[in-house]
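Subject: Sanity check before I submit

Could someone independently write out the structure tokens for this chain? I want to compare against mine line by line before I put it in a report. The sequence has 82 residues.
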Amino acid sequence: MSLPKFILGMRFALAIVVALSWLGGASLGTTLLRVVICAVVIQVSYFAVVYAMIARSEPTPADRLREAERKKKSTDVPEGEK
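---
Independent answer below. Compare away.
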């Protein structure tokens, strides 16, 4: 999910929290607390999902090429040649 879509969805979710709090007769402080808690939960969840997606992804061909070049330029001596 792209960041603009996430922000738009977050705004809608927070608007729903505000509307339901208002319809339920909650005070301004309670409504604000609910909005802050909801925003924090959404942000932490988004971070966790993005982190999981990155952790699960396989290396790209460019990553493999970079790693091969690093090994090639390495000054480490192979075990058998020590």
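---
OP: Matches mine. For the report I'm noting this point. DSSP finds three helices and no strands in the chain.
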